[in-house]
């Protein structure tokens, strides 16, 4: 499972490298999804190893969502309180991620070369993407299409996207070996 320190680093990176106007809680969850599933398609394993569920607004990472929800509801006691704040812009219901500090070299050291490459790639791809647009894009991914609503989205389904370099069996084996 991913460390809290790495979750903070990922959110800090996304907040600095995507248009913050669109970086609400929902888009943030989709960015985590693409970080994990693009890494699976390119390297055979996820970055966070979180469990994703299929919901109406797209895939949701369970542990990360709980950490972010806690930060939104209880800022003073949040596990993210040293690095991230969530604000509600006037006239919206959006919970916007706002960094309290900059992403730094210490944060970068938490990532392997491939993880940082995909973090950068996902940020660049979705930098100017609105929440509704990233939801629609996530709905076109094989893992989302082939999962049932309110059910777990297995990482192995990433193999069914045409851009995957791995089979479902290879992904399953890579995840088993890595999580031992």
TrEMBL record:
Domain Antitoxin SocA-like Panacea: 28-142
Superkingdom of origin: Bacteria
InterPro entries: SocA_Panacea
Pfam families for this protein: SocA_Panacea (PF13274)
Name used for this protein in its record: Antitoxin SocA-like Panacea domain-containing protein
Organism, as annotated: Candidatus Roizmanbacteria bacterium CG22_combo_CG10-13_8_21_14_all_33_16
């Amino acid at each position: 499972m991913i460390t809290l320190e790495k979750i903070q680093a990922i959110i800090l990176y996304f907040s600095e490298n995507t248009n913050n106007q669109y970086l609400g809680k929902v888009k943030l969850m989709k960015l985590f999804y693409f970080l994990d599933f693009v890494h699976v398609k390119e390297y055979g394993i996820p970055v966070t190893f979180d469990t994703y569920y299929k919901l109406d607004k797209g895939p949701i990472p369970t542990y990360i969502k709980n950490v972010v929800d806690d930060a939104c509801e209880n800022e003073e006691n949040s596990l993210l309180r040293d690095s991230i704040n969530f604000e509600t812009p006037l006239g919206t219901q959006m919970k916007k991620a706002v960094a309290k500090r900059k992403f730094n070299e210490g944060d970068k050291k938490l990532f392997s070369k491939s993880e940082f490459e995909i973090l950068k790639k996902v940020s660049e791809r979705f930098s100017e993407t609105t929440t509704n647009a990233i939801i629609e894009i996530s709905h076109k991914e094989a893992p989302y299409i082939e999962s049932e609503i309110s059910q777990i989205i297995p990482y192995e389904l990433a193999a069914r996207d045409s851009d995957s370099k791995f089979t479902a069996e290879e992904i399953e084996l890579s995840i088993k070996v890595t999580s031992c």
